[in-house]
Amino acid sequence: MKTTTKCLALLALCAGVATSPGGDALQLPPLTTVSGAPRLPGKFVWADLVTDDVPAAQKFYSRLFGWTFRGAGSNYIIAANDERPVGGIFHRPRPKEQAAATPRWFGYISVASVDRAQSAVKKAGGRVLAAPQKMPARGEQAIFADAEGALFGAIKSSSGDPEDFLPEPGDWAWVQLLSRDGKKASEFYRAVAGYEVIENAVTNRLSDYILTSNGYARATVRTIPDGNEKAHPTWLPFVRVKSVTESAALAKESGGTVRIEPKPELFNGKVAVIADPTGASVGVIELSDEWLKGARE
Which pLDDT score is estimated for 34? Predict the structure, then answer.
């Protein structure tokens, strides 16, 4: 398998994320505290930000989403929304020789077996960035890059997975993969996570394929248009906000940038893509109560 510059950059950025610089194990919370919670393979159940400036990121997301934080190791903090843990922030120095190793968010997919996921990643042309490791209270997890270099994690929770629920403002609401070849990428994740892949036939669609499991849509795959060389294959998670327009303005005021402004032709102006002060991208999405009517049933 040919090793790409981007994969090497990701490997350098993510090396050692399971422990702090001093070697102490991370104190990760369980994914759920609900007794008897089932595992939901295919669901994105956690997210991490790898960055070289944790204080800047913490200040930004605290102001933008109202997240609170607590330490879980000397180089890792846990982010919570309304006291519910939603993700973590790792500190990793940015490798000077690897310009592609920019800070980024990535999600963890629930899988039935992390070892089998790892084997599937290798067979499908991906790369192992952090080998499977068992972690107290959390379970077993690993970090991979797919065949195009997009970063993602796999986890088998020891406590089960968080139930499917309607996200509140400040919660993760969606995740989308940007790919040069949406069909091929969808087949990669079908092999790794067991998704059922559904081609999106809707006119003027925002995605080309939908990844589903247990009757739920878990993620979408969007093929990057030809000629758009600035866009790179990556997973982009979205956070629900009360107002996309206000969130975009607040992101700018807080030292971030807006990479895709809200516009009527894009989900009726209800989505935008921002970048925090360290350069990591994250989407914001506004979901109206009318649009979500019946979602709790």
Answer: 87
Q: Token pair of 199, please? A: 């081609």
Looking at 2.30.30.760, 3.10.180.10, 1.10.10.60, 2.60.40.10, the CATH number of the domain 5-19+38-157 comes to 3.10.180.10
Q: Whose CA is closest to 275, among 261, 262, 256, 260?
A: 256
CA distance 41 to 154: 10
Residue whose entry in the numeric block shows the structure tokens 């009318």: 290
Mean pLDDT of 248-276: 94
Average pLDDT, the chain: 87
Query: Which residue bears the tokens 């247990």?
Result: 214
Q: Would 5-19+38-157 and 172-285 be classified into the same CATH topology?
A: yes
CATH of the domain spanning 172-285: 3.10.180.10
> Are residues 168 and 212 in contact, defined by beta-carbon separation less than 8 angstroms?
no
Distance CA 61, CA 50 (A): 14
Cα separation, 118 vs 123, in Å, equals 9
Count of CB atoms situated within 10 Å of the CB of 296: 7
| pLDDT for res 13 | 56
Neighbours of 273 (CB within 10 A): 20
Domain extents in the chain: 5-19+38-157, 172-285
